[in-house]
């Protein structure tokens, strides 16, 4: 099978809506070889260039026949691959996911153990801020969400009832990890100990 055919096979296997970067094909061939092949597929209209070195296999609107914009989740995954990074949800979104606030954050902010940056792509302005809390494999890791949520709410506003509501959502394994992470933030660790 030719390289181009291998690339097309992988893209179609992932399905329409998949957002990707040349790094997604490093198991097929070297980065410098993949780039011109993707450009060729884009010129043929088989894939779409999104800018910033990202592409997608766009979903076609059945009614209008137009290409739908890429989903944010897909863009984030591709950015992680491109940057060799893994993101965490922001403290504001973590608090929202845990039900500690009803307000969905207006700003698209993610956290990273690497450098801070702002990426503008496909109408999205994505802010990536540095955090010292280790990034888990799963973005929905509840222990990490809990720590970031409490940091966001802030020392002066986190009450014992908020802490209890947060910890009540964690199973035994998650609670153990949360207590370990909390030790990195003195005021949260103090609350956890005081709540024991």
The largest β sheet comes out as:
4 strands, mixed
Low-confidence spans? none
Mean pLDDT: 94
Shape: elongated
Helix content: 40-55%
Tell me the series of helices and strands, N- to C-terminal.
HEHEEHEHEEEHHHH
DSSP strand tally = 7
Report the portion of residues in β strands: 5-15%
Estimate nothing, just give the exact number of structural domains: 2
Structural class based on helices, strands and sheet pairing:
alpha+beta
Strand order of the largest sheet: 4-5-7-6
Radius of gyration: 21 Å
Q: How many angstroms does the end-to-end distance come to?
A: 61 Å
* Total of helices: 8
Folded structure, characterized:
A four-stranded mixed β-sheet has the order 4-5-7-6. Strands 1-3-2 form a three-stranded antiparallel β-sheet, with helices on both faces. The mean pLDDT is 94. The protein is built from eight helices and seven strands. 24% of the residues are buried. The chain has 196 residues and is an alpha+beta fold. The protein folds into two domains: 3-79, Orthogonal Bundle (Arc Repressor Mutant, subunit A); 85-195, no CATH class.
Compact summary:
With 196 residues, the protein is an alpha+beta fold. Helix content is 43%, strand content 14%. The termini are far apart.
Main traits of this protein?
196 residues, alpha+beta, Arc Repressor Mutant, subunit A, 2 domains, three-stranded antiparallel sheet, 43% helix, elongated
